[in-house]
Amino acid sequence: MSVKVRIGTRSSPMALAQADRVSAALTALDPDVAVEIVPFTTSGDKWMGPLSQLGGKGAFTKEVDAALVEGTCDLCVHCVKDIPGDRDLPEGTVIAAHLERDDVRDALVHPGGLSLSDLPDGSRIGTSSPRRAAQLALHWPRLSPLPIRGNANTRLAKLDAGDFDALLLAVSGLERLALTDRITEILDVDTMVPAIGSGTLALQCRTDDTPVRDLVARLDDPMTSWRTEAERSMLRALNGHCHSPIAGYAIQESEGVLSLHGRVMSLDGSTVLEARESGADATALGTSVAEALLRQGARELIDSLAE
Ligand SMILES: NCc1[nH]cc(CCC(=O)O)c1CC(=O)O
User: Fold this and answer.
1) Ligand 1, closest atom to CA 102?
2) Gap from CA of 266 to ligand 1 centroid (Å)
3) pLDDT at 56 over 60
4) 82 lines ligand 1 (CB under 6 A)
């Protein structure tokens, strides 16, 4: 029996590339699957001010999730990084799979080919991520993080127009846009601890849509799902929101054992809380690392920043 799958996605070039990848993967599983891509402009795409002023959570996922619930699409392709960490998924929906994780690291894009250490004092580094700004301040206090909004292509256009000296962007995002030639430095994961869920795509469908759910579940990479659960469990226990300078990165340490590195910072990089633990149970590991960070005062740091 052939299945029809309408994929709901943001309409940015990066999101459309992600949806195309899922479409190709579904067709490779079963050539009879009929895939259609349904793009949505989300509130996060429309609003060019600070995301914190949007109020509602899930600025990049809300409209696509609503379409899934209403039945105007059957599958949402989301960056895990864009899925709010402090609330449940919409009722009646479930993440049926995580694709194999891409590069988790952040990259510098500087038109003159320089790396961060070579940039002149006061260079304007475009990023709106509190996690990137805090770690930039921690390691390169001479440089100036400046807020920037818009999708990756828009940001690169602003860089090329001279509004910024350099940008920090995700390697995986630039890969999806075939723009890795713009990268001038890739930051290691201990210097710039990655975002929770970085480089990972989540496939979300309706809980009761068994045909789509069963099909999509075949695309799951269990290792990625396991690591994602550890990182997301930490974020849930911290009750963190996307305006908090929180980083979290899980890797497999040995057969059946994960290692999770969590970092919570003040925006100016002057306070850095760290915890690193290992364990076999991803959920328990995330909770435990979060508790270690909370014991060091993570709550005050997270709450001191406006939601
Ligand atoms: N905040 C937007 C966003 N959400 C996910 C990615 C990159 C891809 C990923 O990590 O899955 C990006 C762009 C960026 O951070 O440069």
Assistant:
1) 11
2) 21
3) no
4) yes
DSSP 214-243: HHHHTT--HHHHHHHHHHHHHHHHHT--TT
What's this model's pTM, rounded to 2 decimal places? 0.95
Which residues are CB-contacts of 120 (< 8 A; sequence separation ≥ 6)? none
Residues labelled catalytic: 82
Which atom of ligand 1 is the closest one to the Cα of 170? 16
Third-level CATH fold of 106-186: D-Maltodextrin-Binding Protein; domain 2 (3.40.190)
* 2 CA distance to ligand 1 middle (Å): 33
Q: Is the predicted ipTM greater than 0.90, yes or no?
A: yes
Q: What is the spatial distance between Cα 161 and Cα 99, in angstroms, rounded to a whole number?
A: 35
Mutate which of 18, 81, 176, 196 to test ligand 1's pocket (most atoms within 8 Å of Cβ)?
A: 81
Architecture of domain 230-304: 2-Layer Sandwich (3.30)
Structure tokens at 52: 């914190």
3-state secondary structure of 277: strand
pLDDT above 80: residue 307: no
Reply yes or no on whether the pLDDT at 49 is more than 90.
no
CATH fold, domain 4-99+200-220, is D-Maltodextrin-Binding Protein; domain 2 (3.40.190)
Average pLDDT over residues 246-261: 98
What's the confidence (pLDDT) of residue 243? 78
Sorted by sequence, the CB contacts under 8 Å of residue 196 that are 6+ apart come out as 80, 81, 85, 231, 232, 234, 235, 246, 247, 248, 249
